[in-house]
């Protein structure tokens, strides 16, 4: 039997919620007051007698990072669109656009130009290295000859810290030497225009018996003012030709007034400022082609290089 007076409050769980109500434990028999644990299941409304004693759980405070939804359109920049139509158009076109395509093409062109230049530079380097043995150049070497002013000069003085372009010929040549010296003059002008005065053009005679300093000076003045003429004794010229691998057929003992022709190799020998052989240019090269090759080698040079104003 349940008593009418409520003597002691207590807490329990009803429908998964903490509920405070008065207890009739002292006036109700033990079997009637047994509390059986129940699973959390949905229950109906509380009895009217208990509803007044139920305390509602406090509401959760709002998240500090939450923000209200905004209908203001974002700026149209870097893939953020003002309208749904623009977004759908971008979705149809995929990740590629005119800007991306232009960037891709530009990058490809720059890479192609870089690797083409590097390929040419490596080929020129291999060509130069192929003419060198360990510690000694296979083409070229030291010499001391007489210039067109009658002064004795060594090869280092002739180069004077610059590249040199060496040609072997003779002043009585009827056709080949004048043609090649005309081409050499064009090469000199083109290189000077592109790289500055960093090249010393040198003419070495293969006919020392007739090509005196005075004769050479008058002969070279007809082609280019920058040309340096060199001559010497028969043995000196023969030694220089041997070092440069130049063939010539001038006989040793000649009587004064004899008329003869001289067979010789027809090449321009490009030497670097240290006196090392770089490349040989033949008749198959035009003046423009030869000037481009010379300019490319000058551009590849990383050592000291004297430049005249």
UniProtKB/TrEMBL annotation:
Disulfide bonds: 173-177
Origin: domain of life: Eukaryota
Keyword annotations from UniProtKB, A to Z: Copper, Disulfide bond, Metal-binding
InterPro entries: SCO1/SenC (IPR003782), Thioredoxin-like_sf (IPR036249), Thioredoxin_domain (IPR013766)
Positions of the Thioredoxin domain: 134-299
One Pfam family it belongs to: SCO1-SenC
GO terms of molecular function: copper ion binding
Cellular component GO terms held in the UniProt record: mitochondrion
UniProt binding sites for Cu cation: 173, 177, 264
Protein's UniProt keywords contain Metal-binding: yes
GO biological process: cell redox homeostasis; mitochondrial respiratory chain complex IV assembly
UniProt record similarity statement: Belongs to the SCO1/2 family.
Name of this protein: Mitochondrial protein SCO1
């Amino acid at each position: 039997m349940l008593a009418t007076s409520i003597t002691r409050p207590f807490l329990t769980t009803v429908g998964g919620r903490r509920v405070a109500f008065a207890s009739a434990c002292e006036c109700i028999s033990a079997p009637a007051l047994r509390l059986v644990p129940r699973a959390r299941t949905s229950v109906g409304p509380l009895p009217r007698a208990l509803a007044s004693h139920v305390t509602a759980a406090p509401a959760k405070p709002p998240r500090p990072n939450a923000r209200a939804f905004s209908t203001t359109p974002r700026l149209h920049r870097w893939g953020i669109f003002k309208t749904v139509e623009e977004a759908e158009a971008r979705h149809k076109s995929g990740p590629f656009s005119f800007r991306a395509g232009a960037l891709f093409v530009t990058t490809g062109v720059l890479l192609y130009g870089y690797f083409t230049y590097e390929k040419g530079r490596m080929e020129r380097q291999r060509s130069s290295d192929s003419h060198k043995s360990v510690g000694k150049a296979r083409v070229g070497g030291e010499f001391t000859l007489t210039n067109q002013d009658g002064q004795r000069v060594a090869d280092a003085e002739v180069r004077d810290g610059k590249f040199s372009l060496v040609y072997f010929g003779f002043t009585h040549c009827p056709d080949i030497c004048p043609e090649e010296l005309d081409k050499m003059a064009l090469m000199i002008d083109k290189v000077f225009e592109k790289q500055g005065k960093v090249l010393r053009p040198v003419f070495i005679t293969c006919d020392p018996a007739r090509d005196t300093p005075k004769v050479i000076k008058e002969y070279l003045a007809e082609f280019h003012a920058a040309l340096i003429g060199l001559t010497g004794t028969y043995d000196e010229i023969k030694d220089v030709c041997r070092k440069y691998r130049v063939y010539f057929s001038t006989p040793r003992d000649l009587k004064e007034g004899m008329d003869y022709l001289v067979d010789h190799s027809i090449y321009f020998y490009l030497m670097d400022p240290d006196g090392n052989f770089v490349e040989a240019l033949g008749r198959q090269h035009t003046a423009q082609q030869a000037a481009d090759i010379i300019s490319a080698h000058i551009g590849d040079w990383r050592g000291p290089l004297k430049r005249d104003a």
